[in-house]
Amino acid sequence: MPKSAITSKGQTTVPREVRERLGVGPQDTLEWEVEGNAARVTAATRRFLRRRQAIAVGRGSTVEDVRRARAQRGRDAE
Fold first, then answer.
1. Does some domain include residue 5?
2. Helix (H) or strand (E) holding 65
């Protein structure tokens, strides 16, 4: 079982084994849940995943959309 010490500032290092299992790294957030004298640590949802499904994608072709946008831009330049 991985272990880590708490510094005088209340900080600790998350052991590499735990970081790898949770898939976390710099700038990620951990959530702590305390029950009695035990703590459960989980990886918080990453910021970029919070936006998942925020953009509605309709039918059609991305390639055709880009071609239309370029053609429209060309007409606007005249």
1. no
2. helix 62-77
